[in-house]
Amino acid sequence: MPRFWECPSCRALLTRERLEATAGRCPYCDARVGAPAEFADPDAPPAHQPRGARPGPFVVPGTVAGKLAASFQLLFEHLAVIAGLVLMIALPSNAAVELIVARNFDAADQFAALRLKVLVDKFFGPIAAAGVVTLLAARMGGRSITFLEAVRAGIDSWLRVLAARIVAAFFILISCFGFLLPGLPPALRALFLLPGLVLTVRYCLVDQVAVLEPTPILETRRRSAELVSGRAWPIVGAASASFLLIVGFSILVGRAAEAVGILEDPLARALCDSVLDVFAVFFSILLFLFYWEARSEREGDVAFKPALEEYPL
């Protein structure tokens, strides 16, 4: 069983290989974990350190209101990197979808654009999601990472996140399969949705688990359920509040775009949708804060894989 060293400052669990690459210092907060001679590796390349001042370690608030405020703080603190991660996928895909729908418009199918956008997001969205998770994990330990580091981390974790989402979605769909049975009364049909809603909450942290922990893909949903345990209602409350905030922001953007008369232009609509996609990362940050709080409480029971690998730029 591998041995891990705990950072005395940010409490990250680090492997020998990780400490050899940094000469005994924590790659997150730069605190001294061990003597340089103990972890000296003359063949290891020098670790990349981002330029600029280091922010202090981030403490997750204990209340739902505090987490909502902290989510906004982290969103605006790293807006440039987060916007870059989201827009590199959302902007071209939204533009392509809007142009395709505008050219092949079917008045009877008002959800054609939405279906295409969901399909693109399901496949490419994990890249941005994994990059944001990596960015936040580094920030928790007092590190800032560059856009290129976040992109490379997102690409490296893309397949794991995609697979973890597919596994979670499969079990959620199976749990509410009765909803699709024909001939059921509406009340009974709605009742079949409850197991799916419960599993949606229990599996809401699979992205963070897939990126930050060496958990097998088929076990990510169980690990997520373990971390959600005891926090389900706060997560539901926070998710409801964030949903209202996102809907309110989308209404404001839509009215502003309508006021200046640009909604008839498919590229302008794509730009508005992309702005909404950036703001929606607020919800992902909120879930990450719940994950980090739960992981910190259970850190003694799980081997935590450092999120950020050192990439030569």
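Next protein, fold it too.
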Amino acid sequence: MKWDDTSVHILSHTLHYGTGVFEGVRAYKTPKGPAIFRLKEHTNRLFSAADKINIKIPFTKDELNNIQCEILNKNSLDEGYIRPIVYLGNEGLGLRAKDLSVNVAIAAWEWPSYMDPKAKEKGISVIKSSHLQYENPLHSGNKIIGTYFSNTMALHEAIDSGADEAIMLDKNGYISEGSGENIFLVKNNVIYTPTTDHCLNGITRQSVIQMAKDLNISVREQNIKFDDLVQADEAFFTGTAVEITPITSLDGKHINDGKKGQVTNQLQEKFQEIISGKNQDYDNWLTYSK
């Protein structure tokens, strides 16, 4: 369907109540053609999130995977961003989301960089947000449409203060994540990241943990205090959009020397090898569209 011809009914249940799920997926240019990064894992998470809010997707996982490959080919995209979304229809309006049609749409477009490309070298600035992450793990642990307003408010707060991103805390005062990214910090060559009790278990997050272990870098998942980030040697965000982006400034002050750290750089280089199809050890993380 052409971009300008798409439409969703104004009385779609999802538009009014946020009952739906989505994914964010990236495809990269490789010598073998466009390759979608960890497509099966993204689709598995889409189905898992839908199941948790009692939505039955009327397609198989293989069907959606094939469509995501085909949409790259139809749009002649060597790389880009893919957005699958599952939303309910307009057969009835009200909280009762029974007997409504389940609709699936998939869009793709060219999106070379979410942030300023220089951010991967120079790093970004963050602030401590006044907006807390959801107390309900169902909200923070799944990509459910109606649960992102706190994240949006946190990001706007950061931008309005002159920063690039926000650090959100959970209900217990521990670091949770960014507005749309997982967070890692490095201290004495050990990587630390929050548990997934109150944050999304991001697929890039999982990938970075595996990459670090393969590089013989110790990774610890534990509760992290804000002061731990203040005193970190390095810090970085991970996510489909930001990939691996260093954090070099916190509340207007440098983290360590204010430069990208060695561990962050090592992970970035390995990640770049993988997504460009140049590391055969991780070839099972790529799905080629052709």
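About the second fold: The domain at 119-275 is CATH 3.20.10.10 (D-amino Acid Aminotransferase; Chain A, domain 2).
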